[in-house]
Amino acid sequence: LNNINESKRTVDNLMDLMAVQELIDKQLNLQNVKGRSVLGSKEFRKVTLDQQSPIKARIWVLSDMILICRKKDKKDEKYLFKAKLPTKTCVVWDLDPQGTAPPDKRNGFSIVNTD
Fold first, then answer.
1. How would you write the pLDDT of the chain (115 residues) with one tens digit per residue?
2. pTM of the model
3. 3-state SS class at 34
């Protein structure tokens, strides 16, 4: 029974990774790493990469990396690949730990790649 459960988990993880890969315009071979899984994803209104202007982006958190993508256009379900960050070299911190920021700055956080 444990073998069956583990096999099901492995297949589910592969299916989730393939679904993410199909949404992204760049071939990333997401399913090539054993044990990789999709932990979650979320749309963010203001994402700034390398001091560029903020963009609306979807971020996928995988077990070993963070993917940042921007929607191609409003009608299309595809995303343009923008960046990937290995979680081993990332530091995340809250930009407003006291909760005193103005409304447009609340719930902000920063992710920095230390590599």
1. 778 888 898 899 999 999 999 999 999 989 888 889 999 999 998 898 888 898 999 999 999 999 999 998 888 889 999 999 999 999 988 888 888 888 877 778 888 888 8
2. 0.83
3. coil
